[in-house]
Amino acid sequence: MTEIKSSTLNARQAAKYIGISYWTLLSLARQGHIKHFRGGNRLLFRMQSLDEWMSESEEVSMRQAQ
What is the pTM assigned to this prediction? Predict the structure, then answer.
């Protein structure tokens, strides 16, 4: 049987993936800074969206440093 690899993470997994606290992630998601969707009463995050958010944050940080 073929194993299905999930491309979504729950909030705790997503926070660990991008290296921030669970509570910071929830705050950023509720403010609309990080894309997410609801699966029932859970917030879910696509790994691709998290990667994009990290890249965008990195670019903003580099521009501010100049």
Answer: 0.83
CB atoms within 10 A of CB 53: 18
pLDDT tens profile 23-53? 999 999 999 999 999 999 999 999 999 999 9
| Digit-coded pLDDT (tens) for 5-27 | 788 999 999 999 999 999 999 99
Domain map of the chain by residue range? 8-65
Residue ranges of the alpha helices (H) in 1-65? 11-18, 22-30, 47-65
Is 44 within 8 Å of 38 (Cβ atoms)?
Answer: yes
Cβ–Cβ < 8 Å for 30, 19: no
Which CATH code is given to the segment(s) 8-65?
1.10.1660.10
* Residue found by looking up tokens 């790994």 in the block: 47
